[in-house]
Batch of 3 targets.
Target 1
Amino acid sequence: MVDKSLVKDLKEKIISGSAAAESDDVLKSFELIKQISKEVDYLKGDVEGSDYTCQLVFSDLEKEYWIKVSKGIVEYDKGKLDSPSFTITTSKDIGLGLFFGEIDANIVAPLGKLGISGNYTQLRLFQEFYEDVIDEFKKEY
């Protein structure tokens, strides 16, 4: 079961908008990924069949976060990884907008507001996975 206080907090963050959030609020989004992927069968399958790490860099704040989805386990934290599968570099507002489900990466990337490096196949898998997490969150909570 997804923690009720996490659901409440994320709903408030989404209503307030990414501009009103703190950069560390992305960790709440990562926690949602971790919790909801244990509850929804097809998401559980995605986590079990995945093996990648995402480095997220908020370039305007010089803050870094990471999330690892590998063989049934989701881990995340602040800081820099030595060799992530892919890196997403953007501003705090755009980054949180992505992880709060407010912004579509396919729209902001061509505008130059989203820097991407690394394995694009794994990035696409993560993007599809995360969009499914957001859809489930909106549908169920």
Target 2
Amino acid sequence: MISKWPFWLLVSLLLFLAGSAPLAQSPSSVSIYSIWIRLSLRGMNQAEIESLMRNMAPKNIGEVKKRLRETVISNLKARKIPELFLASRDSDDLKSVLISIETELRFVGLQNDEDLKQMIKNKLGIPLNRL
């Protein structure tokens, strides 16, 4: 016959571990980043996302925006957008480059972020006065 003692020990250990888990924590910047991306993929723009996140720490939101900006810059470099911009010969080529950048901005939900537009101008050499 199996002793009931190990069973109760296991049950009490599980209850202790379940009770010692933190109940409420502020979300980290990593989870805010994933939330931001999910909302942007659902079609929300920057103003809507910021409105939903208005109760979160401004420092975390700032870190997320910084990470998103760096992601956009690296994605545009990987797609060779600066080279396409320099090689553009007519308005259709230029329009294609601008549409690619605009799509990337919409993808991360930073359509209205002036800091990102300035980064694109400074780091990639593409002025975005049309967006």
Target 3
Amino acid sequence: MSTEAGTQTGQSASSGGRQEPQAVIRESAKYRRRAQEAERRAEALEAELEAMRREREEESSRLGADLAAARSEADSLRGRVEAIERDRRLEREFLAAGCADVEAAVALARHRLAGQEPPEDLKTFARALLAEKPHLRGEPATAGAAARGLGPCTTGVKPAGASGQRRILDRLADQARQTGNAKDVMTYMRARRGGI
């Protein structure tokens, strides 16, 4: 009996020894699966993080380009506003100096000042320009010009003519006012100066 008991104990020990490595193998396989799953999740998270980083960089560069474009547009608008303000100051100075054709005087002044800083004293500039170009004041033509048959200066507003001409001027003025188109404004100005 002692031998039977010994053999049973040996079998159970040997069978217990076999079960123990199988349990360890099962446990290690389970941990390996978990580790592989964790590695897959980590790779997926890293890829997602990299995609988010790329999107943020693209958005940052896009916003940088938009900001540069907005700054450029703001600088352009600032320059246009300054030019308009300078033209308005010139108009006031030309009117104060007795200019008859303010539009032509401002255009000439704009041409003279192109690419330069406007002078500090626009009043002196306007008076000097009118002294240089007396026809802008609406003064009569010089004797030499009259002798050559050029006649008096035709700039400025013509006296109101026939009622038909007045209606045409009014229609052109309304059209220029409504559209704001430079071409319509110029058509009106030419008609007003030329008396149609």
